[in-house]
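Service request form, structural biology core

Requester: graduate student, group of Dr. S.
Request type: structure prediction, single chain
Budget code: on file
Notes: please return the result as structure tokens.

Sequence provided:
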Amino acid sequence: MKPVYLIANGDLRLSANQKCEAAQAAMERQIVAAVEREGRTVVRAHGYDRKKKHSFIDSQKYGMEVFKNIPADAPLIVAEAVWQYSHHLLHGLLTHRGPILTLANWSGTWPGLVGMLNLNGSLTKAGVAHSTLWSETFEDDFFKDGLKRWLKSGRIEHDTSHVRPLAECKVPAAAAQLGRRFAREFKTEKAIMGVFDEGCMGMYNAIIPDELLHGTGVFKERLSQSTLYAKMLTVSDTEARGVLSWLMKKGLRLNLGSDEASDLTERQVLEQCKMYIAAVRLADEFGCATIGIQYQQGLKDLAPASDLVEGMLNNASRPPVFREGTRQELYPGEPLPHFNEVDECAGLDGLITARLWRKLGFAPENTLHDLRWGRHFKGGGVDAYVWVLLISGAAPPEHFVGGWKGASSERQPSMYFRLGGGTLKGISKPGWIVWSRVYVAEGRLKFDTGLAEVVALPREETEERWRLTTSQWPIMHAVFQGITRDQMMARHPSNHIQVVYAPDKAAARRGLLAKAAAMRELGLEAFVCGDLS
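Core staff response, request fulfilled:
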């Protein structure tokens, strides 16, 4: 029998790859042992680099070298215990003829699950056939049975019975009419999506082809992060301090220190305040209804991270920004929807959500999160599988317990952000949300949506979940209605998930169906996931 080849994709950032090497190696030992128990041998297609001190594929260039030594028809496992840049591998997977298995450990510590979901979404968009598995121990029946099927047939089918086309759902006439009417107005009015450099961290699945986007009435304004940085240089220290003063008066807690290398400093926060002002002014200058900042390659070497900026932008109650040299406030009383990591799918979703929610009379604040990890929790009135939804700071304070007074800002981890910068951290308030995802598959735009309840967990459980993931980031405890853990993983074609609150469950259901109807009217194939009852 043919040997099974194994590859491990990683980050572009050396510090992240070095820090995550041990977790990757531990997972691979478990995977190799599981494959060998089935009587097969494993060949790791690339080795440990003693100079770099890690064994990851860390660039597209290196990825192409690795694939030269992998037989095109070999069974191939992509093993992910960490965050990964999908473009490092996509070229090789596009032309690989053998069966492909993406595989992640069920851990939130280093976001391998998130990385695998991004790769799965990228492969889905590219039309590359693949199977996927996940496991906490690599000894459970779900994993072992799936691995056996893949080794035997090269394919694994998962249960997705929770998914229904919108056409098969009973949509109340009022919701359907509202959605269709909104979509026609939206498409007629048109909107501009400001994109500060596409393709953040190789997220191919996060780029909507222009010809697909145009059908919705949205058009890209391609901007550069260098433009954003240049605009930051025109913002005065006085203006930046004005934003900081506003935040402090609202009750934001800044966890400040004096060491630029490891602490969040006032200087870093003031730079973020300048970025916030610059972003709003550029959005106004180019007529953007929504913007996305990449914040990774390039900008991260010039300025602090943009996460505090993103959270402010996504909130209706935010520091006022005035057109340069005037007292004309820009986007007064409204969020300027920001799509984290330039995820254009989230950008389209977020803009439509904000505007439709205003029509419904609901709070418009919405954000993407990473579908990071989860586990079952029982206690305090909760007995359910509770997911950790986590993002690096783009969540609006309107989503938090206590609003601005319940928010804090902590330094982004040095392994990712050498120049620091604060997050916008908080615990999402209990209530009902509509979750969704716009994605590309089979050459067209598609849309999945469902209901979830955000639950309150004991403080010690929240702190434990933060400790097991990323403690500096905002967190949401979500229970997806009528969807198991494995069904969610099997279907969700992205690392990101969009969320918005509704006043209650009935309002969430009404908003969900109106939004799904709007998406269908805009040309997206819409699906409802889970239980709406």
